Amino acid sequence: MSKRTQIVVLAKRPRPGHVKTRLTPPYTPAEAAELAADALDDTLDAVAATPAAARVLALDDADGFAADGFTVLAQRGDGLDERLAWAFEDAYARRPVPVLLVGMDTPQLTPDLLARAGAALEEHDAVFGPAADGGYWLLGLRRPDPARIVGVPMSRPDTGAEQLRRLCGLSVATMPCLTDVDDAADAREVAGLAPHTRFAATLARLGAESAR
């Protein structure tokens, strides 16, 4: 991946009762927030290790939050579709180069995957990374356009299909399908795929503690 593409991470601040609520139960709200924090850190590590024109963290509560090597921006909009669209717009307004956007739900993300997506975006108008639940874990646009995102129904089995439909008329490269961490089964699957992550270590520790 060249340095002509910027990477945006769209995330929630990891606060108990605010993130990863579908992990509760079996995990407590505090434990779910700890897993979310590790997933975010793993994601930021992968982005930091990927050559990029800029690295941006778009956070729902950005007050006082800092991340080394990242520009932290406050999210705008009501629904997730609007927050996604405006994260693209705000990043592009600061630096008018292609944008790759990922969430914080795939701690198995690697610099290699991001580099492949960035290289694809140099040859296509858009890059799309489908998720196993029917959504998507990555979206890249050479030139952001809110009309391509606003109004797409979120958190549904057809979210990915509808987002792809909105990209009609563009050349689109597709990335491998990844599993988002939504519930405990997803967490175990992802930890098994990426055993050396912070996320996997915390999941293993919580499992050991609950077995005592």
What does this structure look like?
The N and C termini lie far apart (46 Å). The chain has 212 residues and is of the alpha/beta class. It is built from six helices and seven strands, in the order E-H-E-E-H-E-H-E-E-H-E-H-H. It has helices at 29-48, 80-94, 111-121, 159-166, 184-193, 198-211; strands spanning 6-11, 55-59, 71-74, 99-102, 126-130, 136-141, 172-174. The longest helix is centred in the N-terminal third of the chain and has 20 residues, at 29-48. Helix content is 37%, strand content 16%. Helix 1 packs antiparallel against helix 6 (198-211) and helix 5 crosses helix 6 (198-211). Strands 3-2-1-4-6-5-7 form a seven-stranded mixed β-sheet, with helices on both faces. The protein has a single domain, classed as Alpha-Beta Complex (Spore Coat Polysaccharide Biosynthesis Protein SpsA, Chain A), CATH 3.90.550. InterPro entries: Nucleotide-diphossugar_trans (IPR029044), Trfase_1_rSAM/seldom-assoc (IPR018641). It holds the Pfam family DUF2064.
Give me the number of helical elements. 6
- CATH class reads Alpha Beta
Number of domains: 1
CATH architectural category: Alpha-Beta Complex
Q: What structural class do helix, strand and pairing data support?
A: alpha/beta
Report the CATH superfamily: Spore Coat Polysaccharide Biosynthesis Protein SpsA, Chain A
Radius of gyration: 16 Å
Instruction: Please identify the oligomeric state.
Output: single chain
The N- and C-terminal alpha carbons lie at a distance of 46 Å
- Can you count the beta strands? 7
- Strand order, biggest sheet? 3-2-1-4-6-5-7
- The string of secondary-structure elements, in order, is EHEEHEHEEHEHH
How much strand content do the residues show? 15-25%
Protein name: Glycosyltransferase
InterPro entries: Nucleotide-diphossugar_trans (IPR029044), Trfase_1_rSAM/seldom-assoc (IPR018641)
Pfam families: DUF2064
